[in-house]
Specification:
Helices cover 39% and strands 17% of the residues. The chain is an alpha/beta fold and 327 residues long. Helix 2 packs parallel to helix 4 (84-104). The longest helix is centred in the first third of the chain and has 21 residues, at 84-104. The model has no long low-confidence stretch (mean pLDDT 97). Bound molecules: uridine-5'-diphosphate-4-deoxy-4-fluoro-alpha-D-galactose. The site of uridine-5'-diphosphate-4-deoxy-4-fluoro-alpha-D-galactose has 21 residues, from helix 6 and strand 8.
């Protein structure tokens, strides 16, 4: 089977490409390399943008594609608030374009990269998939709109989809040759490790007055390889005839920013220099997933669930590749 992975040179994409290869799938990647890295991919790579319709059609015309995993998107919450035009403009129109080319070439199965940000401020924790969807930023809204489009395309055109709503993706493949390399970096664990490596003066803690046990935000960190496994399982479920649906992916436990820092100090044996700063606008106090449905229906079993292992694999990547991928 041949799987097209859009955004396959990115962080979660490249780990999923590897999981697919391990399972014996043929994989082709489409990536515009705006965020992704060529070095992260060892399969055929089409460099181009999903907004380029003739480019996309060429990819489908040249390959017998059986299913698609769609990662390629802008994914920064803060940026989306300042530039909603980019997020609505590109995330949604690119997904529409991809779906329309899939229809034209008779490809009817898609796994979609969604996010916890579709829920907005949680009304109950852990968050089940049935939780109200009230995103608080254009990033989450763009992903929710695409889920709605997928649902309508499923009803009207027979496309089947599984949307995977990730909580906080973290860690790196234990092999150590691929990992997280965002430029600029905004995520907590890589920022903590960059502070350990002396690449940043200090890690700033965004808010110490949240209604949580230690005053800092709680997040549900999920290893990138566990996310990748879930994509392969979702693909297999669709191939077996599964109905369209969405699943949360998290470990069901919330760790505070201070706990992440403390664990990073334990893993690295070094101190993390920190500053306590104000809250970052838009951060909910607690985000924790209920992933029971993914466990029951997809047979998903996280392999790297504990925070220490997640941070240890990230550390293995960062200390050996302090400047990320070499361009
Ligand atoms: N944080 C700091 N200092 C930093 C960076 C982050 O204290 O320098 C804190 C944040 O306030 C938050 C936690 O660390 O409490 C995690 O922050 P990240 O930026 O790593 O991740 P987010 O929880 O903000 O974002 C994640 C996903 C997004 C998704 C969002 C949903 O990365 O894709 O959850 O709200 F949209």
């Amino acid at each position: 089977m041949t799987i097209l992975v859009t955004g396959g040179a990115g962080y979660i994409g490249s780990h999923t490409v590897r999981a697919l290869q391990t399972k014996g799938y043929d994989v082709i990647v489409v990536d515009n390399l705006s965020k992704g890295h060529k070095q992260a991919v060892q399969v055929p790579l089409y460099i181009g943008d999903l907004s380029d319709r003739s480019f996309l059609e060429k990819v489908f015309a040249e390959n017998q594609i059986d299913a698609v995993i769609h990662f390629a998107a802008l994914s920064l919450v803060g940026e989306s608030v300042i530039r909603p035009d980019l997020y609505f403009g590109s995330n949604i129109t690119n997904a529409l374009s991809l779906l329309d080319v899939m229809r034209k070439y008779g490809v009817s199965q898609i796994v979609f990269s969604s996010t916890a940000a579709v829920y907005g401020e949680p009304m109950e924790v852990p968050i089940p998939e049935s939780h109200p969807k009230q995103p608080t930023n254009p990033y989450g809204e763009s992903k929710l709109f695409i889920e709605m489009i997928l649902q309508r395309y499923a009803e009207a055109f027979g496309i089947r989809y599984i949307a995977l709503r990730y909580f906080n993706a973290a860690g790196a493949d234990p092999k150590g040759d691929i990992g997280e390399d965002h430029r600029p970096e905004t995520h907590l664990i890589p920022l903590v490790l960059q502070a350990v490596l002396g690449q940043r003066d200090r890690l700033q803690i965004f808010g110490t007055d949240y209604p949580t046990p230690d005053g800092t935000c709680l997040r549900d960190y999920i290893h990138v390889n566990d996310l990748s496994d879930a994509h392969v399982l979702a693909l297999e479920a669709l191939a077996d005839g599964a109905s369209s649906t969405a699943y949360n992916l998290g470990n069901g436990r919330g760790f505070s920013v201070r706990k992440v820092i403390e664990t990073a100090e334990k893993v690295t044996g070094r101190l993390v220099p920190v500053d306590e700063g104000p809250r970052r606008p838009g951060d909910p106090a607690v985000l924790v997933a209920s992933s029971d449905r993914a466990v029951q229906e997809l047979g998903w079993q996280p392999r790297f669930a504990d925070l220490e292992t997640i941070i240890a694999t990230a550390w293995n990547w960062h200390k050996n590749n302090p400047n990320g991928f070499q361009e």
